[in-house]
């Protein structure tokens, strides 16, 4: 008798398990996605900087990349890249290559915009590109991450034709304009760094005198 019940229990569990698995998943995270998102939003303090609450709202690119787990069909990827390309703005001077010495500093800065209870950044603290977190650049900096390709000798290898300078500028301003769901942040899109600062970083990558190319 006991065995019969156990078998019955097992069968119902299997059937309801099947029904659950067969349900269509609307968003990443399935049935818990909305609840998880709400918990995440509420975990930010009400009195925190407004800018951060806004940054929690996903735009079309982030939503789409989430749905396709960063690997959208090419047609959809192309649409996202086009939309991101349309956001790119340039310095008023029109000069896309600035001062490599300033760019060198910005590429190494990993502070600015930190929130939290323990050591939040004071407002106005310099925000940088934190490029070394993901890229090798100047030879003398030996602490770097490898999420992105090495950019050592970038200008030496690619040259600094106007097309290449524009490519580097555009890539830093909005990386998703080239790779729809890249891991590289969109530095210019939300004004994290300014167009002039991006031009300085471009010079750090491309100027023949910069340690990226000289050493
Ligand atoms: C969180 C990691 C991350 C950070 C931070 C980051 N990148 Fe990237 N970057 C990547 C990845 C990953 C790629 C390769 C995939 C792609 O092209 O999107 C890439 C690609 C690039 C490329 C294109 C390389 C090529 O061969 O054409 C350039 C140029 C570049 N990054 C410059 C920078 C600069 C300058 C900074 C700092 C302002 C920076 N990146 C910060 C991850 C990052």
List the SSEs and their pairings.
Layout lengths: L1 H21 L10 H10 L7 H6 L4 H8 L6 H12 L14 H9 L45 H5 L3 H12 L21 H12 L4 H4 L1
Description of the structure:
This protein is mainly α and about 220 residues long. It has a domain at about 90-215: Cytochrome Bc1 Complex, Chain D, domain 2 (Orthogonal Bundle). It contains ten helices and no strands. Helix 8 (about 160-175) packs across helix 9 (about 195-205). The longest helix is centred in the N-terminal third of the chain and has 21 residues, at about 1-20. It is globular, with a radius of gyration of 23 Å. The model is unreliable at about 1-25 (pLDDT under 50). Heme C binds next to helix 8 and helix 9. Heme C (HEC) binds near residues 133, 148, 149 and 178.
CATH T-level fold name of one domain: Cytochrome Bc1 Complex, Chain D, domain 2
**What integer value in Å does the Rg equal?**
23 Å
Outline the biggest β-sheet: none
Amount of beta strand: under 5%
Q: Give the class-level CATH name of one domain.
A: Mainly Alpha
Q: What would you give as the CATH superfamily of one domain?
A: Cytochrome c-like domain
């Amino acid at each position: 008798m006991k065995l019969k019940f156990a078998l019955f229990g097992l069968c119902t569990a299997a059937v309801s398990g099947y029904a659950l698995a067969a349900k269509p998943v609307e968003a990443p995270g399935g049935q818990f996605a909305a609840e998880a998102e709400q918990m995440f939003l509420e975990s930010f303090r009400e009195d925190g900087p407004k800018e951060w609450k806004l940054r929690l709202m996903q735009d079309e690119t982030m939503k789409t990349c989430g749905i396709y787990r960063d690997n959208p069909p090419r047609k959809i990827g192309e649409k996202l890249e086009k939309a991101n390309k349309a956001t790119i703005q340039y310095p008023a001077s029109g000069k896309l290559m600035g001062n490599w010495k300033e760019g060198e500093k910005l590429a190494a800065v990993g502070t600015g915009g930190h929130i939290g209870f323990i050591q939040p950044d004071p407002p106005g603290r310099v925000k940088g590109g934190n490029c070394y977190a993901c890229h090798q650049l100047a030879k003398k900096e030996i602490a770097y991450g490898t999420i992105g390709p090495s950019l050592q000798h970038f200008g030496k290898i690619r040259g600094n034709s106007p097309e290449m300078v524009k490519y580097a500028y555009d890539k830093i301003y909005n990386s998703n304009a080239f790779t729809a769901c890249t891991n590289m942040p969109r530095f210019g899109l939300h004004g994290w760094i300014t167009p002039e600062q991006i031009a300085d970083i471009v010079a750090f990558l491309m100027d023949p005198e910069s340690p990226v190319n000289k050493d």
